[in-house]
Write a structure and sequence with these properties.
The complex is a heterodimer. Chain A has a domain of 61 residues: Dna Ligase, domain 1, CATH 3.30.1490. Chain A contains 15 helices and 22 strands. Chain A has a five-stranded mixed sheet. Chain A has a four-stranded antiparallel sheet with strand order 5-4-19-20. Chain A has a four-stranded parallel sheet with strand order 7-6-11-12. In chain A, a hairpin with a 5-residue loop joins strand 8 and strand 9. In chain A, helix 2 packs across helix 6. Chain A is globular, with a radius of gyration of 23 Å. Chain B has one domain. In chain B, helix 6 packs antiparallel against helix 7, helix 8 runs antiparallel to helix 11 and helix 12 runs antiparallel to helix 13. The radius of gyration of chain B is 19 Å and the shape is globular. Chain B starts with a helix and ends in a 20-residue tail after the last helix. The chains are: A alpha+beta, B mainly alpha. At the A-B interface, helix 2, helix 9, strand 7 and strand 9 of A face helix 1, helix 5 and helix 6 of B.
Chain lengths: 483, 325
């Protein structure tokens, strides 16, 4: 059964693969030809093969369910890749590097001179009221002045084709392991196409991550002790923690494996005794990191870790306090930051945003609730937000009460009609909305993943791509169209 | 290597070995029942004793018949020593070890676990049971092979070998004990021709029948089988071999003096025993003593290296087999 691309249409939307005239976009030409030759039935066979491979490889994510506790679910992958031309990607790459550079300068500034506040670019209240601003970090100098070593920035493309930054995840962003595993699986099920299209590889990330982490070591030695700190097997991203530790050849530790001794250095409990730890890639939120400083009831963290870190005896990635720039209110100031610190214009625009903390903007938001997305400034995973166009009158009026009570806690944005990619469904290939999360490493140099993790809203019409809420994922191909 | 990690590796190896032994035990018993005329068959209850799960079985209100006992030993998650429970624990442990287990090994285990769970509801029928269990044993041996062939010889590997060998030593001694008791207990005289079959099944439960013929070139007899199962130098599942292996691996870790002492105690005890002259009571007493010494090895190991030594429940099969006779 041949695929008739004329049947495929995404009216009023920007499709990543098929252009407005019904023909393939440049980066997707080889793919479209390949899929047409395979035919719809065979694509179904390959989709099934991919699902079996994922099951066999044990690629999972964990969902917490109220009745059943934590459940290990097979990772959802749609095999039709999302394609981006290398040319477009290199612009995005530069935009991301620019953005993260500015964010790191901002965080360092906020914990030291606070020039940007003194100069009135970012109001003081924004920082003073930020839940993720950590007074314990004031004055600390992390190695290379770098705070956000690993950043996952979510990108979306609107109907007119513009790529916007939706949010920056600077605390413990996850998803990169799935980016690598998705490629493994798609190579298994679409082996033929990799020979004929110039698809750039993605599996360099763990080596880059290791090099970046190792360079943070306070002790200068050939093989510093780098560890990955996980909350444990019940964490939703445990698969990824283990994956990265294995790929880097590092120990995967839990808080109970580590101790801060009297010399304020961190040690891990090995069969051979105590071994000093130099760098911790921590996948635990600030709140749980050190019961001596943050939440006293935390059993996941390590007592004294902040002492060791602030004296420079151990490096933490990301640095505690980096989340201050993760705040969605701070996000609204990133273009100004880029101008302020780098004297450049932002290459990648923000989604236009209203700050509910500013009375006039709040009033505007309240009158437009029906057409806006309202997000909590420190939320993640798509929780606690209002999707205006899909909400009921009742939901909106309840949300309005909340907004008036805590205006600082929210920002509002117009609904971005996310671009689509053909996706395998029971009814053949249909357009489904996608976003993209590239990962940016900062340290001695900046590295951006080749593409990133494409997340896809599997249900028709929805824009919610979070895997915890029924979203799927796709392999992302950066295709060199000039070769 | 982290102390917590080696502890988990150790338990992973024990659980996998226990699952494999249980599968083999049930499979062999199914077969040997077929070789015996009605009235001679020794039935299924002895397996409950071999696996040290008498208490759990009595508490389970299951009947003492084939179908129920097979279910109990293989499928019953409520029985902590069952194959299904061992595999589940093994998989949970493996999940905490994803960073150190080679991906191939994880995939074999994971795939096997999925298949096992899927086929379990029909796998235990008499018609499919043999194949189901045989495949299970093969998959577990494949896993052991993959791990042997791909893991670095580091502390994790060492503790895997320790777990595997201690669990084997434990199981071999149990099988010798319970089987010997049953055979002795049977009335003398007309049982003789079937004794051989029973002793052969002892060897088969350890996958040792062919190796026995190869090394002994002799008829199967009680004294010879006991000697082979407990003390053979070449058979990898004999108690002696397992203890020697354990000793070699323990030497690779620091601070192992106390563990080596505990091992020497067990080995010397086993070496000194006169297996040819033992009646059943004396044999049972001997094996009881041997098992206590094997448990001693585990205890010193846990105290020396494991962070959770106190918190971890003692494995069921390291409790002595007092109720077996």
């Amino acid at each position: 059964m041949q695929i008739d691309w004329n049947d495929y249409s995404a009216p009023g939307l920007h499709d990543e693969l098929i252009g407005p005239g019904g023909g393939a976009r440049a980066a997707g030409r080889t793919l479209v030809r390949y899929l047409s030759e395979l035919g719809g039935e065979e694509i179904g066979v390959r989709q099934h093969a991919a699902e079996l491979a994922i099951k066999a490889m044990g690629i999972t994510f964990t969902v917490y369910h109220e009745q059943e506790g934590s459940i290990d679910r097979a990772w959802p992958l749609d095999i039709i890749p999302r394609t981006i031309s290398r040319k477009e990607w290199s612009r995005i790459e530069r935009g991301l590097a620019q953005r993260v550079t500015a964010l790191n300068l901002f965080i360092d500034d906020v914990y030291h001179e606070q020039r940007i506040l003194a100069d009135g670019i970012v109001p003081r209240e924004v920082i003073a009221s930020s839940r993720n601003f950590r007074p314990n970090c004031v004055g600390v100098r992390p190695p290379l002045k770098c705070w956000a070593h690993i950043c996952g920035t979510d990108l979306v493309r609107d109907k007119d084709g513009t790529v916007y930054v939706l949010e920056d995840n600077l605390r413990v962003p996850s998803g990169v392991s799935y980016m690598i595993e998705n490629r493994q699986v798609v190579k298994r099920v679409f082996p033929e196409v990799f020979g004929s299209a110039a698809i750039l590889p993605v599996d360099d990330y763990p080596s880059q991550l290791y090099d970046m982490l190792a360079a943070l070591s306070p002790r200068k030695q050939r093989r510093p002790e780098v560890v990955v700190l996980t909350p444990g097997i019940y964490n939703s991203a445990y698969f990824e923690h283990a994956f990265l530790a294995r790929q880097m050849g590092c120990e995967l530790v839990e808080g109970r494996d580590l101790t801060v001794h009297e010399d304020d250095c961190v040690y891990m409990h090995t069969v051979r005794g105590w071994t000093r730890v130099d760098v911790i890639y921590r996948r635990i939120d600030d709140d749980f990191l050190d019961p001596e400083v943050f939440r006293a009831d935390s059993t996941l963290g390590v007592r004294g870790l902040m002492r060791a870190w602030s004296q420079g005896n151990v490096a933490l990635a990301n640095a505690p306090g980096a989340g201050v720039a993760d705040d969605k209110l701070v996000y609204t100031y990133v273009p100004e930051m880029i101008r302020y610190y780098l004297d450049e214009e932002a290459i990648l625009p923000n989604v236009p945003s209203w700050r509910c903390g500013e009375p006039r903007q709040l009033e505007h938001v309240l009158t437009q609730l029906e057409s806006l997305v309202v997000k909590p400034v420190d939320g993640s995973g798509g929780y606690g937000m209002l999707m205006g166009p899909m909400s009921s009158q009742r939901e909106r009026s309840q949300f309005a009460i909340q907004l008036r009570a805590q205006p600082r806690g929210y920002i509002a944005q117009p609904v971005v009609t996310l671009s689509t990619v053909p996706t395998f469904t029971n009814g053949g290939l249909e357009p489904r909305h996608v976003d993209l999360r590239p990962f940016i490493l900062s340290g001695a140099k900046t590295y951006v993943t080749t593409g990133g993790l494409t997340r896809v809203a599997m249900r028709k019409g929805t824009l919610v791509v979070n895997s915890s809420q029924g979203g799927g994922s796709k392999d992302t191909w950066i295709v060199d169209t000039e070769q | 290597m982290l102390a917590r990690v080696v502890e988990n590796v150790y338990w992973l190896a024990r659980y996998l070995e226990r699952a494999e032994n249980t599968a083999r035990l049930v499979s062999v018993n199914t077969h040997s029942q077929l070789d015996l005329p009605p009235g001679y068959a020794l039935g299924w209850l002895p397996l409950i004793d071999i696996t040290g799960s008498r208490e759990a079985f009595d508490a389970s209100s299951r009947r003492s018949e084939e179908r129920e006992i097979v279910q109990f030993l293989i499928a019953d998650i409520g029985n902590p020593g069952s194959m299904a429970a061992s595999l589940q624990l093994a998989r949970e442990n493996a999940r905490t070890l994803r960073d150190i287990l080679p991906t191939d090994g994880w995939e074999v285990l994971h795939q096997f676990f999925l298949e096992f769970t899927e086929e379990l509801p029909t796998g235990l029928n008499r018609r499919s049971r043999f194949n189901f269990l045989k495949r299970s044993v093969l998959q577990l041996q494949t896993l052991a092979g993959v791990l042997d062939g791909t893991m670095n010889r580091n502390d994790a590997y060492t503790f895997m070998m320790l777990g595997r060998n201690l669990e084997r030593a434990d199981m071999s001694s149990r099988i010798a004990d319970v089987r010997a008791a049953q055979l002795e207990a049977a009335p003398p005289g007309e049982m003789r021709p079937f004794d051989t079959i029973q002793w052969m099944s002892v060897l088969r439960s350890l996958s040792g029948y062919e190796m026995y013929r190869l090394s002994r070139r002799a008829r199967v007899s009680r004294a010879d089988v006991l000697e082979f199962v407990l003390r053979d130098e070449q058979f990898p599942r004999s108690c002696r071999s397992c203890l020697v292996q354990t000793q070699e691996w323990v030497r690779a870790v620091p601070r192992s003096g106390v563990v080596l002492d505990a091992l020497a105690l067990a080995s010397r005890f086993l070496a000194a025993a006169d297996l040819t002259r033992l009646d059943q009571n004396a044999l049972h007493e001997l094996i009881d003593q041997l098992q206590l010494r094997i448990i001693g090895v585990h205890d010193t190991l846990a105290r020396t290296y494991f962070p959770n030594a106190e918190a971890h429940p003692a494995p069921q099969s390291t409790t002595p087999l007092a109720a077996a006779v």
